[in-house]
Amino acid sequence: MRKIIVSEFMTLDGVIEKPGELGWAFRFGRGEEGDAVKADEVRSAGALLLGRTTYEGFAQAWPRQTGDFAEKMNGMPKYVVSSTLRDPEWENTKVITVDEVADLKRQPGGDILVNGSAELVQALAARGLVDEYRLMVYPLILGGGRRLFRDGAEEAALRLVEARPVGDDGVVLLTYRPRHRTVTSADGTPIAYDRTGAGPAVVLLQGAFSTRDDPIMTGIAEALAARFTVYNYDRRGRGGSGDIAPYAVQREIEDLTALIEAAGGRAMVFGGSSGGALALEAAAAGAPITRLAVFEPPYATAPGHRPPSHRELAALAEQGRRGDAVELFLTRGAEMPPEAVAGMKEQPFWPGIEAVAHTLAYEAAVVGDGPVPERVSAVSVPTLVLAGSASSGRMKDAAREVAGRVPDARLEWLEGQAHGQADPASIGLALEKFFSG
Questions:
Q1: Which of 38, 152, 167, 259 has a C-alpha 20 to 30 A away from that of 25?
Q2: Are 398 and 411 in contact (CB under 8 A)?
Q3: How many other CB atoms sit within 10 Å of the CB of residue 378?
């Protein structure tokens, strides 16, 4: 996926307005190093994204210039976000809307560079579409002028990636990337989440071992971001989220409710695997969910099959036997052959799996002792149950039973998909159709 990189000349008081026309950027030397930074930035960019005002200034200046830098600026693809511009004259320019930017990021090509364009940057930041800020800060206070972020902008924490002086005049290059956002649950637990896209709100819940950085969840978020505002969060006890004892399923329902409140008070929800079971519990308890989709909640419908309990898994984790907790969960819970688990222990990802072993007890509490719980019949919102045609018989049977018990539910098979090996694009396409209904 392409990145959107915002690159700005900025004064100490945050002004970015007309650094060339007003001349303030020329009062201080940025040296050969600073010149090289800007040249490399343009040379490596795959496209330029601008607001109309900045575009018109560039379109007036660059076609008259010559040399390698000008040739790159004039030749690269350019996108202007505008509702009024009709016939852009600068070569290789296309007019788009801000809602089309998420789709532009998914297209092949190099990173997308944004210069100036304060209003556009603010709109992109509000949609969670900015991947990096490169700010060349000049030791100057102007006392007025257009700033990069206006008063009233939503709070968002950034992570400093690099800070270095360029030249000998006090100019500093600061590079930041967004941190995750947080919301506070009812018991005070901070819940970390990422927000991308624009449109109606969709909240994603992952299953066992996963965080919001899981490739399947991030892939689903990317697939939905063109039409929806997607909230992808770390369930308590993992990733960037906190974990206040004692655990209870109700607290996870409160976590989800806090995310929905942050999303505007009502949202559509998708849960994968045990995240689907949690989503069903929340909907049955009356959480403000408008549409619900789940992928293979891992209930055990076969007579006599007893997955490991919350008590068993919690005891192993409390004793420091994290590897044993993972092995028990995988063999008796996920029905994985012991020899396959033994092979996993030799892989470099095994320590990461053990790191979240304490949360396996949470999954057991959410899924219960096996059968699909009767209380899912209290789910009153339209529900889509997804299942893979290549999944095990257990997963298929559980999906059929969930779809049969939820009053307003339908079952949809994803051809060639399987539990733990699903293609996020396939799930994303099914969700897009359902959530758009």
A1: 152
A2: no
A3: 16
Structure tokens at 343: 């092979």
Q: Which of 255, 296, 280 minimizes the C-alpha distance to 420?
A: 296
Dump pLDDT digits (tens) for 263-290: 999 999 999 999 999 999 999 999 999 9
- Amino acid residing at 6: V
- For residues 273 and 220, the answer to whether their CB atoms sit within 8 Å is no
59 lies in the same domain as 138: yes
Range of the domain at 188: 181-302+370-435
What sections of 225-307 are H helices per DSSP?
Answer: 249-262, 274-284
| 208 and 104 assigned to the same domain | no
Q: What is the pTM of this model?
A: 0.75
Question: Residue 173 in contact with residue 36, Cβ under 8 Å?
Answer: no
Average pLDDT over all residues of the chain: 93
CA distances, 339 to each of 327, 335, 379 (Å): 11, 12, 39
Section 126-136 average pLDDT = 90
| 142 and 244 co-located in one domain | no
Distance CA 191, CA 181 (A): 8
- Closest to 295 (Cα-Cα) out of 180, 409, 427: 427
pLDDT band at 378 (very low <50, low <70, confident <90, very high): very high
pLDDT tens sequence across 219-248: 999 899 888 999 999 999 999 999 999 999
242 and 340 co-located in one domain: no
80: domain CATH number is 3.40.430.10
Domain end marker among 153, 178, 203: 178
Helix axes 68-75, 31-44, angle to 10 degrees: 30
Q: Classify residue 195 by its DSSP letter.
A: E
Residues 207 and 279 in one domain: yes
Does 234 lie in the same domain as 92?
Answer: no
Secondary structure (3-state) at 274: helix
Nearest CA-CA partner of 184 in 280, 251, 246, 284: 251
Helices (H), 348-415: 350-355, 360-367, 393-405
